[in-house]
Amino acid sequence: MKVEKLVIGVIGLGMGAHHLKGAINYGAEIGMICDVNPEKLKAVGEENNIPEDRRTTDYLDIVNNKEINAVLIATPDQQHREQVEACLAAGKHIMCEKPLALTREDLVAMVDAVKAHPECRFMIGQICRFTPAFIKAKEYIDSGAIGEIYFAESEYAHDYQHMFDHDPKNWRSDPIRNGVVGGGCHAVDLLRWLIGTDPSEVYALGTHKLLPAVTYDDANLAILKFPNNVMGKVFVSTACKRNYTMRTCVYGTKGTLIFDNTSPTMQVFLVDENGEGGHEPQEVEVQVNNHNANAEFKAFADALVNGTEIETPIIEGAKTVAACLAIIESSKTGKLVNPDYNF
Ligand SMILES: NC(=O)c1ccc[n+]([C@@H]2O[C@H](COP(=O)([O-])OP(=O)(O)OC[C@H]3O[C@@H](n4cnc5c(N)ncnc54)[C@H](O)[C@@H]3O)[C@@H](O)[C@H]2O)c1
Question: Per the confidence metrics, is the pTM higher than 0.90?
């Protein structure tokens, strides 16, 4: 199933403004953009030369527009399910921002809805899979250069305080939008992707010392057990006093990779041909592109235009959130939890 000509609708113009640029840079036609905030709609519309008759504050105008065949959903997490279901019912292809959903109920409903509409292609937007340093790390791992992975850790450390200074009722303060699923899903998804399997057991702790605007833990630490005795660790802080980072280390039997999403180099430790050494790092240059919306949109569009597979179909988003929900449950109960990947 190939799409001859892409006509894009964009719903939500925060992160969605980046996706809009990705679509414009790709050369896709922009059918309509939407934001409930008229000032934001005007500003993004003018900046990108989108005529006024292609701007709306009601996302149903995009859903009901027959020319638009693909929709980029970048609204607050709580709205993803309703908008995905509406777009599917109207026969649209969809790229939806992470996290897919915030609850098990919504995850299951969304996976079922996508299964019920095989004519619509669905991509979950896990943008870290397009971050140059993370792609480079994946190449080292897949080439066998660092041998067999035995431990990998990643973190999502991002201070949300400024968002609440600007708007104390920011949608991220909703108790259901726990930082582990909202932002930590990036680190969990990264480990799932780099290791290539899903954690089968999770044990986690949580604490709350920094972010008064939220009732959920503002820091969590999770130990993950992956198949083949691979160990994992995820740290999430939504109020850290440092710059945003996803510092990540992957330890293998022949080498180690240390990298993040905001540094121009990564450290690569490799044993020599005799299996010795590996204690001095090579500094490998990487492009810094933390929100690589161009590459993410290209992956979506190429799959539609060429009829090829989507690398992050809905099940990828669902499994990542399932692991995050297990982390939240374990931090609340103090018990080991098995994520439920039964979709
Ligand atoms: N991939 C990433 O790295 C990344 C980064 C930030 C946010 N996100 C995700 O992107 C989504 C949006 O987050 P954000 O940071 O852009 O939030 P934001 O609050 O900055 O922007 C959301 C926009 O959506 C608009 N909006 C809200 N409800 C709407 C509706 N019903 N119809 C149309 N517009 C509506 C708001 O007015 C706002 O302009 C969330 O799912 C978030 O988790 C992903």
Answer: yes
